[in-house]
Write a structure and sequence with these properties.
A hairpin with a 4-residue loop joins strand 14 and strand 15. It is globular, with a radius of gyration of 23 Å. The chain is of the alpha/beta class and 455 residues long. The protein is built from 15 helices and 15 strands. Helix content is 39%, strand content 15%. Bound molecules: NADP nicotinamide-adenine-dinucleotide phosphate (NAP). The site of NADP nicotinamide-adenine-dinucleotide phosphate has 20 residues, from loops.
């Protein structure tokens, strides 16, 4: 067993470390995975279970069913968000917190000890976290991505048969979005209008670089750095995923017709990478003569605005999508809405040495402690984690079982029966049904588990 000096955390008594290097994970049969339960709907309060509890039960059951005790995840509880503040700084007031500098504030919500165990064990599952109240330190999630260089934001968006989605083409959606997570506008290089730094930068841009800016206007200025290395490593991950998971196409989404040296370069570097590193496996769409050679993945590119139209009219034409930071953010939220909402939207943040898995949504505070929110997104996030570990059978079992549960609900609707075996958010989308016609979060999990037994 591992040795590590810890203060508030207790190392699990069993389990082994997953070793990740250069993006490749070597996974034992009893891997230790760091678990941050999360705030709000993530958290179990006074024995009323949160969605993280529902997800863990489901993940454990899927693993047990598929591998009959040969494999098991050992969950290692660590603190982040409000729970970290309660454990490490129970007496601190909001005013004291606001007076702290950025890094001290960060330690309140994301203790060094939590960072240490994530770094050591490499893989973590995280519930949603409240954005801190203080001024300087803005986001635990953004900090984690930068700290561990989790450069690939991965979102899997697939339609579940039976969900009353707002778009009639939703049933064609089966996409995996790879969003660049740490560069571009998320670099945070931005200057407020009228400040000294902004004036200095404006002067430099106009006088040294010949930029045309109207001296009678006050500009806020942001900088959008995108590197060749950053773009290539993201597109490499997307292509590898397509090859390993039987997707036929990788599309690079960009606005390169306007932003030529950032988003345009993203496209150019992507084609270069495909040629340099995936010859014989990947073919550019423009090089296809007659039909796609057998076993090849096609790489193409699309301008962001036209792609937003096409995901609504012909989503079946897309599989894996690689995109710069902000494009990816918009695209994946639009897709989640297209297939029926945030309650079924999982994600992963993956780097070369670490991976953190989380649902797309936040803490939905108005549903905290009510056993009401949809745990589907956390369960599907668990499925992405299992896929990362290479435990694909268990990942697929979770997805199939959720699908089965939703179809059961849709069939009950045909017979005008209630309650539906899904949570309030899905129940209210069926015509003639309201949010009162669903089941509790924990009951949905029970049903998903029951459906695994019958698979
Ligand atoms: P939110 O927590 O995502 O909730 C917005 C709405 O989305 C909810 O009111 C609910 O809609 C729906 N929703 C979200 N999760 C759901 C679930 N599991 N099941 C069913 N419905 C769900 O967004 P927010 O209210 O803007 O943010 C609350 C806090 O979360 C903030 O502190 C924010 O910073 C934080 N946040 C954290 C993360 C993260 O940790 N990754 C991500 C986003 C936001 P209805 O009310 O219509 O039912």
């Amino acid at each position: 067993m591992e040795k590590m000096e810890l203060n508030k955390l207790k190392l699990p008594e069993t389990g082994e470390r997953i070793k990740i290097a250069d993006g490749i994970a070597v996974v034992p049969d009893n891997p230790i995975v760091v678990l941050m339960e999360g705030d709000g709907i993530g958290k179990t309060v006074n024995n009323i279970p949160g969605i993280t509890d529902a997800a863990i039960r489901t993940i454990n059951y899927a693993v047990e069913t598929c591998y009959g005790g040969k494999r098991r995840i050992i969950w290692f509880n660590a603190y982040a968000g409000d729970s970290a503040r309660e454990v490490y700084y129970p007496n601190i007031s909001d005013d004291e917190l606001k007076a702290m500098d950025d890094d001290e504030q960060r330690k309140v919500y994301l203790p060094d000890e939590t960072l240490k165990v994530i770094e050591h064990f490499g893989v973590a599952l995280k519930g949603p976290l409240t954005t801190p109240v203080g001024g300087g330190f803005r986001s635990i999630n953004v900090f984690l991505r930068k700290h561990f260089d989790l450069f690939a934001g991965v979102r899997r968006v697939k339609y579940f048969q039976g969900v009353p989605a707002p778009n009639i083409n939703a049933n064609q959606v089966n996409m995996v979005i790879f969003r660049e997570n740490v560069e571009d506008v998320y670099s945070g290089i931005e200057y407020k209008a009228g400040t000294e730094k902004q004036k200095k930068l404006e002067k430099f841009l106009v006088e040294e670089l010949g930029a045309e800016l109207d001296p009678n206007k006050e500009y806020g200025i942001g900088i959008k750095p995108m590197s060749e290395q950053g773009c290539k490593r993201l597109i490499r991950k997307a292509i590898q995923y397509a090859l390993e998971n039987d997707f036929k196409k990788v599309t690079m989404m960009h606005k390169g017709n306007i932003m030529k040296f950032t988003e345009g370069a993203f496209r150019k570097w992507g084609y270069e990478l495909a040629e340099e590193e995936f010859k014989g496996k990947v073919i550019a769409e423009s090089d296809i003569k007659d039909k796609v050679p057998k076993g090849f993945v096609v790489i193409n590119d699309k301008i962001a605005d036209s792609m937003f139209q096409q995901i609504q009219t012909r989503p079946g034409e897309y599989g894996v999508v690689a995109c710069p930071n902000l494009n990816g953010y918009y695209l994946s939220d639009a897709l989640a809405a297209l297939v029926g909402g945030l309650g079924l939207a999982p994600s992963a943040n993956i780097g070369e040495n670490c991976a953190i898995f989380e649902a797309v949504h936040g803490t939905a505070p108005k549903y905290a402690g009510m056993d009401k929110a949809n745990p589907g997104s956390m369960m599907l996030t668990g499925a992405m984690l299992l896929e990362f570990l290479g435990w694909k059978e268990a990942a697929e079992l979770i997805r199939e079982s959720i699908a089965k549960t939703i179809i059961e609900a849709a069939n009950l609707v045909k017979e005008n029966k209630k309650p539906l075996p899904v949570t309030y958010d899905l129940a209210r989308q069926f015509k003639g049904y309201t949010d009162k016609d669903g089941v509790k979060s924990s009951e949905f999990a029970d049903k998903v588990i029951e459906n695994m037994k019958m698979s």
